[in-house]
Write a structure and sequence with these properties.
elongated; three-stranded antiparallel sheet; about 20% strand; about 50% helix
Amino acid sequence: MGLIKEWREWRDFQRIQEFRESGMDELLLQAGLTSAVLTKEEALSIPSVGTCVDLISGIIATLPIKLFKEGSGKVEELEEDKRVILLNDETQDTLDGFQFKKALVTDYLLEGAGYAYINRRRNDVESLHYVENRNVSVLVGVDPIFKSYDISVNGVNYREFEFIKIARNSKDGVTGKGIIKEHNKILSVAYNTLDFEDSLVKTGGNKKGFLKSLGRLSKDAIAELKTAWNNLYKNNTENIVVLNNGLDFKEASSTSVEMQLNENKKTNSSEINKLFKVPDSILDGSASEAVHGNFIKNCILPIIRAIETALNKDLLLPSEKEQSFYLLLI
């Protein structure tokens, strides 16, 4: 008897393991409880994320980029340089200068790096082409001291000097860590809250629950019940289900999340604003001059400096750097 008991325990354990491996991921996916990283589109569908990204990227995209040359004790602005025209007005791509900068900042904030291909003819820059972060693969060398990397787009390898690279929280100068990966948990909570609200609207507010039956139902009865129940949770259709004798519906109790949905939304929204360093008062229009100043200092200026550094590194020739050329967002 002891061997049989041990064998049964081992068999039950194996079944549990098989269930965990084969079915748990699917169940979690259906419940919306997976730990998968949100996509950029999913993150932007969260109102607070979309608002903060649009605000920050819009402010920076409106700033003109100018080229200066310093020498003989004076600073000269080079207004006719083609790179200035490409950056501010016509990129010679499908995006104009405003859209180009806005797209780079959006990828920088959410995905950790913004990329643009520099189309050169010898030493002249002919056009600038924004490349979405998801389409870029970075092949980093193994040497932790003398770092090197190649950039791949659609299976084609490019050298590092062929791309503008604006990286956030980077350890190698080309890849970075965006807010989506850094704070995926709170963003997932906010996104799942939206999904939960959406499901409430689609079901007309009908609560979920379970049915109890005193006896075994026939296949026809089960099919009829499923059809009626499906109609109950659809809008603009019949919303009455007649339960035959022996059937009883037990409504699921409200969870703490359901009871405090609005309060949780406000809290999550405020926390997400903090991730972007955007005060709530900036968004509702009640910010003082001091708050505006801190917002520019803590949120906008670091991104501006990151862009300026990347542009000076990738767009200027070595000879121009020696002659004190530099690009600034002003």
